[in-house]
Amino acid sequence: MDKPRLQSKWIIVWGIVGIFLVWGFGFIVFVIDTLTYNPSIPNAQGIVVLTGGAKRIENAIKLLQSNHGKYLLISGVPPTTHLDDIERILPFSLTQHDRDHITLGHNATSTMGNAIETAAWAHYYHLDSLIIVTSSYHIRRAIVEMQSLLENVKLYPYVARNDKKETLSHLHSMRLLFLEYNKFLAAYTGLIHTTRPKEDFLKNTP
């Protein structure tokens, strides 16, 4: 093999090794961030909780009850689930004020769907600031995908954690973190695109 061709081969090899090392370092940072990220509790006009993880809905309703937001959207609720069903799994009861200010979103089945549902809901109520509630491993991607549709809305992340201190053994499996890290990279680099909701959907939701 001639010298220029050999040099090209090594450049490709070291390029692949470099990409793998950067990806691996990023994954370590992502895991540490998942374990330690704990933003302060802000005040906003609305609160959005993405279903799918323990304590998410309970934490979001507590934010509503403590006046950190005026309205609450629970996004990604199964079509046959009603507010009474949700109340049964809570350790406290809902007041009439809570019921009047909670919207159940039945259309989302993914984080992209959550983003579309949230954009329509925020548009309907003319909200320009939202607290986004989800699990620690999910919050970074959720904010990226939400922000792509809510360019003029200020988003505040809020992490719903279990009562026990999270460690790697308490978190979901490493496989879940691995998948979520790659989804976050895809969303951050624009490989995942969220389709902007159509105008008629914006006008008629909720």
From TrEMBL:
Q: Where is the DUF218 domain?
A: 46-158
Alphabetical list of Pfam families matching this protein:
DUF218 (PF02698)
Q: Does the keyword Ubl conjugation apply?
A: no
Residue ranges annotated as transmembrane are 12-32
Which keywords are on file for this protein? Membrane, Transmembrane, Transmembrane helix
Which InterPro entries did the record assign? Cell_Envelope_Assoc, DUF218
- Which domain of life does this protein belong to? Bacteria
Protein name in the entry: YdcF family protein
Query: Which organism was this protein described from?
Result: Commensalibacter nepenthis
